[in-house]
UniProtKB/TrEMBL annotation:
Taxonomy of the source species: Eukaryota, Metazoa, Ecdysozoa, Arthropoda, Hexapoda
Region (Disordered): 61-158
Gene Ontology terms: cellular component: nucleolus
Composition bias type Acidic residues, residue spans: 74-84
Domain of life: Eukaryota
Official protein name in the record: Protein LLP homolog
Basic and acidic residues: compositionally biased ranges: 61-73
Biased composition (Polar residues): 145-158
Annotated Pfam families: LLPH
GO molecular function, one term: RNA binding
GO BP terms in the entry: dendrite extension
Length: 158
């Protein structure tokens, strides 16, 4: 840092702040950890089992299997039709449209136009273009098909 009077003053003020805030921070940490003798002590922590239930992964998996078995047994009972959910929409990953032909709500107009352009390009690349064949290409195709090639008598005028 430069040695101007202003920078020296700033450095001095920062050192004073460091000392003051450092002492406050240390006192706060001690209070939080319960090391400080002067700070009021909080009530002792209650046993964690009173606050929350603790389960391990095995018991959760077993409960899930039992639940699935119960659901399997209930399937033997008369079948109920699932309720139609009005809010659910099924989107096609390729076209990004839902079952009603609408784009998602979060997709703005520019993005829709861009998506349509991109889809058009990808469709063009997958379809073969109807290209006019030149004479040479026609001859090559005939040769590849093992058909006798007829040579035309074309004279060039010079």
């Amino acid at each position: 840092m430069a040695k101007s009077i202003r920078s020296k003053w700033r450095r001095k003020c920062r050192a004073v702040k460091r000392e003051r805030y450092g002492a406050k921070e240390l006192a706060q940490l001690k209070k939080t950890l319960g090391i400080d003798e002067n700070a009021p002590t909080d009530e002792e922590m209650k046993d964690i089992s009173e606050i929350a239930t603790i389960t391990d992964a095995k018991t959760i998996k077993e409960e899930k299997k039992d639940k699935d078995k119960k659901v399997g047994m209930e399937e033997d009972t008369p079948e109920l039709e699932p309720m139609d959910e009005d809010g659910k929409r099924i989107y096609n990953k390729k076209t990004m449209k839902d079952q009603f032909g609408n784009y998602p709500v979060w997709m703005n107009k520019r993005r829709i136009v861009k998506h349509k352009k991109g889809r058009g390009k990808s469709l063009k690349s997958t379809t073969k273009a109807n290209k006019r064949l030149t004479r040479k290409d026609k001859i090559r195709r005939k040769k590849s098909n093992n058909q006798p090639v007829q040579q035309s008598n074309v004279t060039k005028e010079v």
